[in-house]
UniProtKB/TrEMBL annotation:
Protein source organism: Deinococcus arcticus
NCBIfam families documented for this protein: trpS
Function comment: Catalyzes the attachment of tryptophan to tRNA(Trp).
Name of the molecule in the record: Tryptophan--tRNA ligase
Motif ('KMSKS' region): 195-199
Length: 332
């Protein structure tokens, strides 16, 4: 049976991009593969990008990310779900992999180049981010990695690191494959400035645990097709982020109605957004209710994370010991 691994960063509020791009896929794969599905909140990765990291909020955001995943349907009794820093072998294997990875390959990573150009001083951790990501995956000998399309390059590097280790020290790690969520959209930020991202701040995101009134206030002023200058101007819903959101939250009948209405100026942008809010409320309402119940019982969430860490360590420790022996470290 395949072994699945994926991680999600706690650098901001979990948003609909996380939900449609990752969380729903986690749930589906968890139902299929059970405890061979391993997921974690990758808190060791959070400080690698100082532009998006706040140490005062890290612990709370880590718990929030766990709550969001559980509320979205991930059952910690069926899968392994834990916090990355609670399994120290992640960092140790990451160090071994840095010894095999050329700096030039890391400097070619698209995400590194995008983030580094926004910083006055680039921390080495940002450069090494994909090496630690490779360790996250290979520490469990995972062969299946659900990711967004922007992470595929990192999975290719993980495959290369596995090949390098196996060539240098003997066959140890599989070469994992990236699995993209079927039909997943590249979800635009509500500010209209590219992809929705926690690193861009709350102005870009619609949080899955965010109060519906707050979501409405963001949607109310969200940009639409610039061709619709006046209410009577027809528009193109395929060029409008609200149109993209309708594909996520609205039923087929509503999507057809608002798309036709936009193209003929039969519906205004505000009314289109109000119809979208109906779908958002129906979709996120139950998730937010489950999240509220989990937030009222923080001991359950912490116990679930502790259980997940124990289960993860039971897999990680012997694999790390195997890697140590391959490299030649002294055993006591």
């Amino acid at each position: 049976m395949p072994r699945v691994f994926s991680g999600i960063q706690p650098t901001g509020e979990p948003h609909i991009g996380n939900y449609f791009g990752a969380m729903r896929n986690y749930v589906a794969l968890g139902e299929q593969y059970g405890k061979n599905s391993i997921y974690c909140v990758v808190d060791l990765h959070a400080p690698t990008n100082p532009a998006a990291f706040d140490p005062a909020l890290l612990a709370a955001r880590t718990l929030d990310m766990a709550v969001a995943n559980f509320a979205a349907g991930l059952d910690p009794q069926k899968v392994i779900f834990f916090v990355q820093s609670h399994v120290r072998e992640h960092a140790e294997l990451g160090w071994l992999f840095t010894l095999l990875t050329p700096v030039g390959e890391l400097e070619r990573m698209t995400q590194y180049k995008d983030k580094a150009q926004k910083l006055e001083s680039t921390p080495a951790g940002l450069l090494m981010y994909p090496v630690l990501q490779a360790a996250d995956i290979l520490l469990y000998k995972a062969d299946t990695v659900p990711v967004g399309e922007d992470q595929v390059q990192h999975i290719e590097l993980t495959r290369e690191i596995a090949r390098k280790f196996n060539h240098a020290y003997g066959e140890t790690f599989p070469e994992p494959r990236a699995v993209l969520a079927e039909g997943a959209l590249r979800i635009p930020g509500v500010d209209g400035q590219g992809k929705m991202s926690k690193s861009k701040g709350e102005a870009s995101t619609l949080g899955i645990l965010e109060p519906l009134e707050s979501i409405w206030q963001k949607l109310r002023v969200a940009p639409t097709d610039p061709a619709r200058v006046r209410r009577t101007d027809p528009g193109d819903p395929d060029k409008c982020l609200v149109g993209d959101y309708h594909k996520l939250f609205s039923d087929a009948e509503t999507v057809a109605e608002v798309y036709a209405g936009c193209r003929t100026a039969g519906i205004g942008c505000v009314d289109c957004k109000k119809k979208l809010m109906v779908g958002i409320g129906a979709h996120l309402g139950p998730i937010q209710e489950r999240a509220a119940a989990l937030q009222a019982d923080p001991d359950y969430v912490r116990d679930a994370l502790a259980q997940g860490a124990r289960e993860a360590r039971a897999i990680a420790q012997p694999i790390m010991e195997e890697a140590r022996e391959r490299v030649g470290f002294l055993r006591l």
